[in-house]
From TrEMBL:
Family the UniProt entry places it in: Belongs to the thymidine/pyrimidine-nucleoside phosphorylase family.
Quaternary structure and partners: Homodimer.
Single GO BP term: pyrimidine nucleoside metabolic process
Enzyme Commission numbers on file: 2.4.2.2
Catalytic reactions on record: uridine + phosphate = alpha-D-ribose 1-phosphate + uracil; 2'-deoxyuridine + phosphate = 2-deoxy-alpha-D-ribose 1-phosphate + uracil; thymidine + phosphate = 2-deoxy-alpha-D-ribose 1-phosphate + thymine
Organism: Bacillus canaveralius
Biological function: Catalyzes phosphorolysis of the pyrimidine nucleosides uridine, thymidine and 2'-deoxyuridine with the formation of the corresponding pyrimidine base and ribose-1-phosphate.
Listed InterPro entries: Glycosyl_Trfase_fam3, Glycosyl_Trfase_fam3_N_dom, Glycosyl_Trfase_fam3_N_dom_sf, Nuc_phospho_transferase, PYNP-like_C_sf, PYNP_C, Pyrmidine_PPas_bac/euk, Pyrmidine_PPase_CS
Listed cofactors: K(+)
GO molecular function: 1,4-alpha-oligoglucan phosphorylase activity; metal ion binding; thymidine phosphorylase activity
Annotated TM spans: none
All copies of domain Pyrimidine nucleoside phosphorylase C-terminal, residue ranges: 345-418
The protein, known as: Pyrimidine-nucleoside phosphorylase
Lineage: Bacteria, Bacillati, Bacillota, Bacilli, Bacillales
Length: 434
């Protein structure tokens, strides 16, 4: 086989076979196929697309390019949740203990964040003593015992995707649905998921800005998952404004605890119940979505979710007393209010810009090397559609810097107030199953 012939084949719109895709991914990972040939191929894919079969073959070839986590020693159906990335998205911190309390095994491999705010590990490290540097045997034991554990990324997972993603980044081929879908799905499958619930974000703060694009991506991922024997479904949820109120690591941990207590923000609670119900059904712990939802609501109401959070935190060295006393989480030195300059209704809260404002306070990493300040961030006091009076707080800033003028300015530019009444955005747009 020659790479040049395969580039030509895809350029002319033909379907690549499984052997051809394996040859390409294997050769590229090993270095036998150079970047310039791979660039030509990704551009051909960008314009010609890929069939459902090609996407599934590409996904599995990338899975097989590196290590695969074997979770077979964990009892039950391992359901993973993946979000395509949002601002202040605290769902993982809520869903872990919540669905674990319903008997779903949550074996989460997580990373640190880059940009907006921290990743799940950064957030959890706001709890004194909590650590994810556990070995695989301990990880499996903890999931079997408590139904939930988080381990840091280790091993050589999907090296083909790492190399390909870096190449796509500099060849204007990131934004290709088959390439994005196979990239995301390969990582979930290599991490050992039996079933996958996808939270595809849509709106100004999301990777996919329109509902049409988000639906296309969701359908592509669901198609791949089901073709390779992983029960997969997707929820398309709103990211035109940040989710919940908190953006920042310790602030989001507190928000997750509030939600597990049944006192969380409405949108975060609703999204967690929706995603969680699908996880419970895919894991076979309820027959219908409404049965699953009632189960999760009961778990919250009776305090079982909160207890599970304590067990989860202390099993990995964390100080579980933060659950009853969130004042023990890292606290910022200063708070400032962003006061509304006029009366009206909040019409826009540009999610990614607000995420960047939190990053400027130190809540996120500008580069891989930056240190994160776990205590700082933002609490939204108003969401889209809320009425506001001049002088009322729109946002509270938690900062360790005394001067936050630039952050305030960025927030004023990206939170708009209109004289007309505004409807809040729809939270859950669609649910996509096979
Ligand atoms: N996120 C991924 O993991 N891969 C992509 O290709 C795009 C976004
Ligand atoms: Ca939040």
């Amino acid at each position: 086989m020659r790479m040049v012939d395969l580039i030509e084949k895809k350029r002319d719109g033909y379907e690549l076979t499984q052997e051809e895709i394996q040859f390409i991914i294997h050769g590229y990972t090993e270095g036998a196929i150079p970047d310039y040939q791979m660039s030509a191929l990704t551009m051909a894919i960008f314009f010609r697309g890929m069939s459902e079969k090609e996407r599934a073959d590409l996904t599995m070839a990338m899975v097989e390019s590196g290590d695969q986590i074997d979770l077979s020693e964990i009892e039950g159906i391992k359901v993973d949740k993946h979000s395509t990335g949002g601002v202040g998205d605290t769902t993982t911190l809520v869903l872990g203990p919540l669905v674990a309390a319903a008997g779903v095994p949550v074996a989460k491999m997580s990373g640190r964040g880059l940009g907006h705010t921290g990743g799940t590990i950064d957030k959890l490290e706001a709890v004194t003593g909590f650590h994810v540097e556990i070995d695989k045997a301990e990880f499996i034991e903890l999931v079997n015992k408590n139904k939930v554990a988080v381990i840091g990324q280790s091993g050589n997972l999907t090296p083909a995707d790492k190399k390909l993603y870096a190449l796509r980044d500099v060849t204007a081929t990131v934004n290709s649905i088959p390439l994005i879908a196979s990239s995301i799905m390969s990582k979930k499958i290599a991490a050992g998921a039996d079933a996958i619930v996808l939270d595809v974000k849509t709106g100004a703060g999301a990777f996919m800005k329109t509902l049409e694009q988000s639906r296309e991506l969701a359908e592509a991922m669901v198609g791949i998952g089901n073709k390779v024997g992983r029960n997969t479904m997707a929820v398309i949820s709103d990211m035109s404004q940040p989710l919940g109120f908190a953006i920042g690591n310790a602030l989001e941990v507190k928000e997750a605890i509030d939600t597990l207590r049944g006192e969380g923000p409405g949108d975060l609670t609703e999204l967690c119940l929706t995603l969680g119900s699908h996880m419970v059904v895919l894991a076979g712990k309820a027959k219908t979505l409404s049965e699953a939802r009632s189960l999760l609501e009961k778990i919250i109401r009776e305090g079982v979710a909160l207890e599970k959070m304590k067990v989860f935190l202390s099993a990995q060295g964390g100080d579980a007393s933060v659950v009853d006393d969130p004042g023990k989480l890292p606290q910022a030195k200063y708070t400032f209010e962003l006061e509304a300059k006029k009366d009206g209704y909040v019409s826009e809260i540009v999610a990614d810009a607000v995420g960047t404002a939190a990053m400027l306070l130190g809540a996120g990493r500008a580069t891989k090397e930056s240190e994160i300040d776990l205590a700082v961030g933002l609490m939204l006091r108003k969401k889209i559609g809320d009425a506001v009076k001049k002088g009322e707080s729109l946002v509270t800033l938690y900062s360790n810097f005394e001067d936050v003028a630039d952050v305030k300015e960025k927030l004023y530019e990206n939170i708009r107030i209109s004289a007309q009444k505004i409807e809040p955005p729809t939270l859950i747009h669609e649910e996509i199953t096979q």
